[in-house]
Design brief:
It is found in: Cell membrane. Belongs to the heme-copper respiratory oxidase family. It is a multi-pass membrane protein. By secondary structure, the protein is mostly helical. The protein has a domain of 135 residues. It is 63% helix and 3% strand. The strands form two sheets. The protein has a three-stranded mixed beta sheet with strand order 1-3-2, with no helix packed on it. Helix 6 runs antiparallel to helix 7 and helix 12 runs parallel beside helix 15. The two termini are 26 Å apart. The mean pLDDT is 92.
C-alpha cells in the first residue's frame, strides 16, 4: 500500500499514529452508530440511511404494484363491478402518485445516497444530518398519503391533479389537499438529497479523482441532482398555489376570477417531463456500471456518454409542452416543441450505442445484472420509438389520453428505470449485505419479468389505437377491448409473479446466500475497494485515484492518503476540478434533531391541510428545533 501523508498542526491522533491492526476498530468506534433505538434514529451514516431509503422505496413500489393489480383485475373484463368508480379513481391516482413521487424519484436518490460517497472515496455524504432529515420527511409524506387512502380520503384526480377538476369547486373535501401536501413532502426531501449529492461530488472526491476520472455512475447522479434542483421548484410552486386556491380562496387557477387553469399544466409539466429523465438518468448510471464490469472493459466513449448525460439534462427542460399539444397551442410553438421532443432521442441513442459497443468489444459475462440490462435495451428502445411517434402533433392528437400513451410511458419508465434498477440490486446486493443473490432465481426473475411485462403492456398500444381512453373504471362489451385487456391482465399477473420470486430471493439470500468477498464481480470502481458490507468509516485510508478504472489499474497496491483524525469524524475536502487536497473538515456527529425537525414539519404540513393557521402556530416550534439543530458547538476550526 503506497501512502501519501497529509501534514497538519493538529494535536489529535492521526491515522499515521495508529498501527494498521488497530486502525479499523478505532475508526469504527468514531464513525459507528450507537446501539439502541435512539442511536438508530439519530444515525447520520449514509449507508444506513441509504438502505432505509432503498427499502422504503421498494415498500412503496409494492404498494403501487398492488394498486396496479387492482386496476388490471377491474379492467380484465367489460362491465366489471369489482371496484366502484370512486374507489377506482383513488386507486389509479395512488398508483401513479406512488410510482412517480414515492418510488421513481426517491429510489434513484436512495442508490446515490448509499453509493456515491463510496464511489468518490469519502467517508460520509455532505450534510449528513440533512440527509437524515430528508429520509424522515420522505417516509412521513409517503405514509401520510397511504393512511389517507386507507381512510377513504385518498386523492382521486390523477397523479397530475389537473385543475379545475382538483380545484375547490369540483373537488370538495380534503382529497386533493393530501395530494398537494404529499408533493411538498417529497420535493423537500428530493431537493435536500440533490444538494447533498452535488456537494459530495464537487468537494469530497478522493484526491486524484479529476473530472475525467469520475465514474459514469457518479456523473449520471450528479446531472440528475441538477435536474431535480431546477425542475422540482415548479411543481412545489404549483402545488402551493393549488392548496392556496383551496384553503385561502386565492384564484391562481380560477378562470372566473382572472386565473388560468393552463398555468397549472405549464407548471406541472415543466417539472413533469424532466421528471421522466430524473427517473431515467439513475438507470443510465446503473447500466454504465454493470456493462463495464460484465464486459470486462471500460465503457466505450466515456466523454460521449458524459456529454450525452449533460445534453439530456438540458434538453429535458424543452419538452414539457408536448404534453399540451391538444390545449390549442399556436402552430409555431408546437413545431418547436416537436423538434425538441425528437432531439432528445439523440443523446439517449449515443449512450445506447456506447453501451452496445462496449459489450461488442468486450468479453461479456451473462450474469443476472447484465440480463436485466439487455432487457432494458429492448424495452427502452421500443418505448423511445413510440415516444418519437408521440412527438408528432397529428399522432399525439389522435392518441392523446388513450392507452397508447399508457403503453408508451410504461415501456419508457419500467424499461428505462425498473429493469436497470433490478439489475443494480443484483449487482450491489453483495456490497449491501455481504451475500450474493441466488443466480438461478435471478434468471427466473428476469425471464418472468421480461415476458410478463411485454404481455401486459404491448396490447395496450393496440387498445389505445382502437380508442380506449385512460382512467375509465370500466367499458361496455360492444367496444371490443375485452380480449386485449384480459391479455394485459394475464401479463400483469406474470409480471407480479416475477417480483414475488425477487422478494423470495432477497429474503433467503439475505440469510443464507453465498458469502461475497470485497469485490465478487472484479469491478473497477471504489465501492469495491472496501469490505462487503462497508465499515462505518467506509475506508481505513482515503484512496488516492490514479486511474478512471482504479481497481483494474492498481490490482496489487491501492494508493492511499493518510493524515486524517482517528478519534473525531473528519473528511478530506478537495478542489473542484483537479481533486487536490484542500482542507480537512469535520463531519457532523449523530443527533436526534433531524428526526424531531421532520416530525414538527410533518405536523405543520398535515395541520395546514385542515387550517392555514397551522403554519402560523407551527412556525415558532419549527424555528426552535432548527435553532437547536444548528446551535453552535465548541468545535475546533479545521485546517
Amino acid at each position: 500500500m503506497s501512502e501519501t501523508v497529509l501534514r497538519s498542526p493538529s494535536k489529535e491522533a492521526l491515522d499515521t499514529d495508529v498501527k494498521d491492526g488497530e486502525l479499523p476498530a478505532r475508526l469504527a468506534a468514531t464513525w459507528g452508530t450507537a446501539a439502541g433505538l435512539i442511536g438508530a434514529l439519530s444515525t447520520v451514516d449514509h449507508k444506513i440511511i441509504g438502505r432505509r431509503y432503498i427499502i422504503t422505496g421498494f415498500f412503496f413500489l409494492f404498494l403501487g404494484g398492488l394498486a396496479a393489480v387492482a386496476i388490471r383485475l377491474q379492467l380484465a373484463r367489460p362491465d366489471n363491478t369489482l371496484i366502484g368508480p370512486d374507489l377506482y379513481d383513488q386507486i389509479f391516482t395512488m398508483h401513479g402518485t406512488t410510482m412517480m413521487f414515492l418510488f421513481g424519484v426517491p429510489i434513484g436518490e436512495a442508490m446515490a445516497v448509499y453509493l456515491v460517497p463510496l464511489m468518490v472515496g469519502t467517508r460520509n455524504i455532505a450534510f449528513p444530518r440533512l440527509n437524515a432529515f430528508s429520509y424522515y420527511v420522505y417516509l412521513f409524506g409517503g405514509l401520510m398519503i397511504w393512511i389517507a387512502f386507507a381512510l377513504n380520503i385518498g386523492p382521486d384526480n390523477g397523479w397530475f391533479s389537473y385543475v379545475p377538476l382538483a380545484g375547490p369547486e369540483f373537488s370538495p373535501g380534503k382529497r386533493a389537499d393530501f395530494w398537494a401536501q404529499m408533493v411538498t413532502f417529497t420535493e423537500v426531501s428530493a431537493l435536500a438529497v440533490a444538494v447533498e449529492i452535488i456537494i459530495t461530488v464537487l468537494k469530497l472526491r478522493a484526491p486524484g479523482m479529476t473530472l475525467d476520472r469520475i465514474p459514469l455512475f457518479v456523473w449520471a447522479m450528479f446531472v440528475n441532482a441538477f435536474l431535480i434542483i431546477f425542475a422540482m421548484p415548479a411543481v412545489m410552486l404549483g402545488s402551493t398555489m393549488l392548496i392556496l386556491d383551496r384553503l385561502l380562496d386565492t384564484h391562481f387557477f380560477n378562470q372566473a376570477e382572472g386565473g388560468d387553469p393552463l398555468l397549472w399544466q405549464h407548471l406541472f409539466w415543466f417539472f413533469g417531463h424532466p421528471e421522466v429523465y430524473i427517473i431515467f438518468l439513475p438507470g443510465t448510471a446503473f447500466v454504465s456500471a454493470i456493462v463495464a464490469t460484465f464486459a470486462r472493459r471500460p465503457v466505450f466513449g466515456y466523454s460521449a456518454v458524459v456529454l450525452s448525460l449533460i445534453a439530456t439534462g438540458f434538453l429535458s427542460f424543452g419538452l414539457w409542452v408536448h404534453h399540451m399539444f391538444t390545449t390549442g397551442l399556436p402552430q409555431l410553438g408546437a413545431t418547436f416543441f416537436t423538434a425538441s421532443s425528437m432531439m432528445i432521442a439523440i443523446p439517449s441513442g449515443i449512450q445506447i450505442f456506447c453501451w452496445i459497443a462496449t459489450l461488442w468489444d468486450g468479453k461479456p459475462v451473462y450474469r443476472t445484472p447484465l440480463l436485466f440490462v439487455l432487457g432494458f435495451f429492448f424495452i427502452f428502445v421500443a418505448g423511445g420509438l413510440s415516444g418519437i411517434m408521440l412527438a408528432s402533433v397529428p399522432i399525439d392528437t389522435q392518441v392523446h389520453d388513450t392507452y397508447f400513451v399508457v403503453a408508451h410511458f410504461h415501456y419508457v419508465l419500467i424499461g428505462g428505470a425498473v429493469f436497470p434498477l433490478i439489475g443494480a440490486i443484483y449487482y450491489w446486493f453483495p456490497k449491501f449485505t455481504g451475500r450474493m443473490l441466488r443466480e438461478g432465481l435471478g434468471r427466473w426473475h428476469f425471464w418472468l419479468a421480461l415476458i410478463g411485462f411485454n404481455i401486459a403492456f404491448f396490447p395496450m398500444h393496440i387498445s389505445g389505437l382502437r380508442g380506449m381512453p385512460r382512467r375509465v373504471y370500466t367499458y361496455p362489451a360492444e367496444m371490443g377491448w375485452d380480449a386485449l385487456n384480459l391479455v394485459s391482465t394475464l401479463g400483469a399477473t406474470l409480471f407480479v409473479a416475477s417480483f414475488l420470486v425477487f422478494l423470495y430471493n432477497v429474503v433467503v439470500s439475505s440469510r443464507g446466500g453465498e458469502i461475497a468477498g470485497d469485490n465478487p464481480w472484479d469491478a473497477s470502481t471504489l465501492e469495491w475497494a472496501t469490505t462487503s458490507p462497508p465499515p462505518p468509516h467506509n475506508f481505513d485510508h482515503v484512496p488516492f485515484v490514479t486511474s478512471r478504472e482504479l481497481l483494474w489499474a492498481e490490482r496489487q497496491t491501492l494508493p492511499v492518503v493518510a493524515g486524517l483524525a482517528v478519534d473525531k469524524r473528519e473528511v478530506l475536502v478537495t478542489t473542484t476540478t483537479q481533486a487536490l487536497p484542500d482542507l480537512k473538515e469535520s463531519s457532523p456527529d449523530p443527533t436526534i434533531w433531524p428526526l424531531i425537525s421532520a416530525i414538527v414539519v410533518t405536523a405543520i404540513f398535515i395541520g395546514s391541510i385542515f387550517t392555514p393557521w397551522a403554519v402560523a402556530w407551527g412556525a415558532p416550534v419549527a424555528s426552535f428545533v432548527i435553532i437547536a439543530w444548528f446551535w453552535p458547538k465548541s468545535t475546533e476550526e479545521n485546517v
